[in-house]
Automatic annotation (TrEMBL):
Keyword Cytoplasm tagged: yes
Protein name: SNARE-associated protein Snapin
Recorded GO CC terms: BLOC-1 complex; BORC complex; synaptic vesicle membrane
Function: Component of the BLOC-1 complex, a complex that is required for normal biogenesis of lysosome-related organelles (LRO), such as platelet dense granules and melanosomes. In concert with the AP-3 complex, the BLOC-1 complex is required to target membrane protein cargos into vesicles assembled at cell bodies for delivery into neurites and nerve terminals. The BLOC-1 complex, in association with SNARE proteins, is also proposed to be involved in neurite extension. Plays a role in intracellular vesicle trafficking and synaptic vesicle recycling.
Species in which this protein is naturally found: Platysternon megacephalum (big-headed turtle)
Family assignment from sequence similarity: Belongs to the SNAPIN family.
Keywords: Coiled coil, Cytoplasm, Cytoplasmic vesicle, Membrane, Synapse
PANTHER family found in the cross-reference section: SNARE-ASSOCIATED PROTEIN SNAPIN (PTHR31305:SF2)
Regions of compositional bias (Basic and acidic residues) in chain numbering: 109-118
Subcellular location: Cytoplasmic vesicle, Secretory vesicle, Synaptic vesicle membrane
């Protein structure tokens, strides 16, 4: 019958370990959310920067075409396009990191809910507990 209750359900200290794990998850959740919001803000900033770089490169090309005196702005345009490429690369890295963080946050919430349900079912979690 104890095998149906789940791994470690009848072992001494499992309730304390579960409470510690739940406390640790609750402790880390705000940091994960804050990191997610910062990553989101950086991604928005990167998109804005990319748009400014595109506009500046377009303007430099236009100026270069309109100049009567031959100014070679091509190296500057190439530098801007290289910077834009790096911004896009960093934005992709941030997007992947944000997605991993979102999945981690989701798994933490799911695990916390599972542990609370297990603790409540085993009677090891008082109904009036402040962490509810």
């Amino acid at each position: 019958m104890a095998a149906l209750a789940g791994p470690g359900a009848g072992t001494p200290g499992s309730g304390a370990r579960d409470l510690f794990a739940e406390g640790l998850l609750e402790f880390l959740r705000p940091a994960a959310r804050q990191l997610d919001s910062h990553v989101h803000a950086v991604r928005e900033s990167q998109v804005e920067l990319r748009e400014h770089i595109d506009n500046l490169a377009t303007e430099l090309c236009r100026i270069n075409e309109d100049q009567k005196v031959a100014l070679d702005l091509d190296p500057y345009v190439k530098k801007l396009l290289n910077a834009r490429r790096r911004v896009v690369l960093v934005n992709n890295i941030l997007q992947n990191a944000q997605e991993r963080l979102r999945r981690l946050n989701h798994n933490v919430a799911k695990e916390t809910a599972r542990r609370k349900a297990t603790l409540e079912a085993s009677g090891g979690y008082p109904q009036g507990s402040p962490s509810k």
